[in-house]
Amino acid sequence: MSIVIKPVRPKKISDQVFEQLLELINRGQIKPGEKLMPERELAEAMAVSRTSLRNAISRLVFMGLLDHRQGQGTFVRAPDSRDANPLARAMEAPDATLEDLLEVRMGIECNAAALAARRADERDIRALEDSLKEMTVEVTSGRLGTEADVSFHMAVSYAAKNPVQIHIMRTFYDFLFYGIKENLYYLYEEQSRIQLIIDQHTRIVNAIRRHDPDAAYAAMKTHIGYVLDFFRNREAI
User: Fold this and answer.
1) Could you give the C-alpha distances from 152 to 53, 105, 158, 193, 217, in angstroms and in order?
2) Which pLDDT does position 94 carry in this prediction?
3) DSSP readout, 72-114?
4) How far is Cα 30 from Cα 226, in angstroms, rounded to an integer?
5) pTM for the full model?
6) Which of 58, 185, 228, 235 is deepest in the core (most CB within 10 A)?
7) With the C-alpha atoms ordered 149, 22, 203, 112, is the resulting torsion angle positive or negative?
């Protein structure tokens, strides 16, 4: 059988810049609406030419992940509108509820946590720890903390190392955290709930750090189950 063998070529600098920026976006370390560093500073920080940086940014703009605004800079794209978000359209079904959304989240994220426990490397675990620290600072300072919460759950999905999972989660959280932000205010308004939620996230991180898929699955299930029960009880009032 005749096969064609192609030479292996080193990655172009612009490809490496693209991959690093994409990772930061997918991990939630650069958040929707956040402005990137000025081009000169970012190129210096990455030790690359401004041409390589521009090529990488152009690809991310084309993918719809970045938005270049003339005279203002480059920003991570904010979540799509309800019309553009397929999950938002699904939620417009007459009988769709927030509980339905959280039940779907249960299936997606418990699996992601188990995969993350199997596949996470040291960088993934550091990203989870950093997101947890940020969320703790946000909520204990009296702020809502939803963006830090997004970063945490995106870090779990990224650690699962499944590109389809990452794409689904980006769409999911665009709607969950930005489309119903007003509902999350009630979840975080009591100090006792804040500490409990932080403890739940901590158990997820610890299970992933131990590479224990069953414990990670169970910890995520406990956390999402708590959120689901909270909204069920609130709606019953």
Assistant:
1) 27, 14, 10, 18, 15
2) 64
3) TEEEEPPPPPTTT-HHHHHHTSTT--HHHHHHHHHHHHHHHHH
4) 28
5) 0.76
6) 228
7) positive
The pair of three-digit structure tokens given for residue 199, joined into one six-digit string:
């403890």
Q: What are the pLDDT digits (tens) for 66-82?
A: 888 888 889 988 665 44
DSSP code for 68: E
User: What CATH architecture does domain 86-236 belong to?
Assistant: Up-down Bundle (1.20)
- Rounded to whole angstroms, the Cα distance separating 82 from 222 reads 29
Mean pLDDT, rounded, for 19-23: 88
Q: What are the extents of the domains in the chain?
A: 13-76, 86-236
13-76 is classed in which CATH architecture? Answer: Orthogonal Bundle (1.10)
**Which among 135, 115, 136 is positioned nearest to 124, based on CA atoms?**
115
| Contact indicator for 217, 110 with CB cutoff of 8 Å | yes
Q: Tell me the two tokens of residue 83.
A: 């019309």
Tokens standing for residue 139: 């909520």
